[in-house]
Fold this sequence. Notes:
The chain has a domain at 11-64: Arc Repressor Mutant, subunit A (Orthogonal Bundle), CATH 1.10.10. Strands 1-3-2 form a three-stranded antiparallel sheet. It has helices at residues 7-10, 17-24, 28-36, 53-62, 82-86; strands at residues 14-16, 43-45, 48-52. Helix 2 (17-24) crosses helix 3 (28-36). 40% of the residues lie in helices and 12% in strands. It is built from five helices and three strands, in the order H-E-H-H-E-E-H-H. By secondary structure, the protein is α+β, with helices and mostly antiparallel strands.
Amino acid sequence: MVDEVPPDQAQIEWLGTTAAAKRLGITTRTLYRFIDEGYIAAYRMGRVIRVKGEDVDAYIESCRIEPGTISHLYPEVAPRGAEAESGDDD
């Protein structure tokens, strides 16, 4: 007789830390920090740490930048000669 696996458990994609870090585009050290700080859930299975692929994908989506939220990173540049036109007449 074969034990039945619940449908939600049958589709879990387990990633090792190296694969998870590569999927995120970060180092394994940074992944360990994210796990330790609670940004990504991880599971210890014996002596190895595993991460669910869906948790990695959820973290990626949570990092999505909303339009209009980073304009502070590219301040408006004054047109050439504008500083000369405003002039400090002492």
